[in-house]
Amino acid sequence: MMPHDVWSFLDIMALLENQAIFRGLVAASQLDTKWALERAAKQPFLAEQFEFYVETFSKMTTALEEAHLPISARYARDILKGLDTTDNEDGRRIAQGRSLALLSENIGKLVKVLPDEADTRLFVPIPSELSYLYESTRPPFGEAVERVFSIAIDDIRDAGNCLALGQGTATVFHLMRVLEAGLRGLAKQLNVTYAPTWDGFLGSGPIKLLA
Description:
This protein is mainly α and about 210 residues long. The protein is about 65% helix and about 5% strand. The chain is built from 10 helices and 3 strands. It has helices spanning about 10-15, 20-40, 50-65, 70-85, 95-120, 145-150, 155-165, 170-190, 200, 205-210; strands at about 45, 85-90, 90-95. Strands 1-3-2 form a 3-stranded antiparallel sheet. Strand 2 (about 85-90) and strand 3 form a beta hairpin. Helix 2 (about 20-40) crosses helix 3, helix 2 packs antiparallel against helix 5 and helix 4 runs antiparallel to helix 5. The longest helix is centred in the first third of the chain and has 23 residues, at about 20-40.
């Protein structure tokens, strides 16, 4: 999903239940533990489950990108690169001390950054009775208004978004701009100059006659 797409509660639940992220954290912990054990034994680390780790961190990277957690996704990608550059000995993957030290460093960064970055993702709930107003797929004022006053389409949409989010003042601001588009259209039809203010325009001779 794109950063400003609408996320339903179901989407959020799916994100929270995304096993790829949790499995990645478990795998990160396993890798870091194995690195510590092998370092203590001063022996090279044999990644017998190399393909498992590659698949796990690949899925984790994708899940983090979809959740719009770019920093965490970068560290997960760095872990994946570290796995991909391990040496190959006798047809098996094997990581020497330096490779594992870098892996351990990136794992530490990922585990530290992920909770903090996830905490920056905010979701604003929209009441179900107002959800139809947010990024409405149907013209809120009807197709005729959208066709004739195409210049006001963005403000009409933004007025609906603001109303759905409980931003009354912002809603009125956008609706005033929509009304101004209508007044400009009226001025054009009457062949009169649109005054710099509503009061000046509405107080002009031709408009007074209409009133």
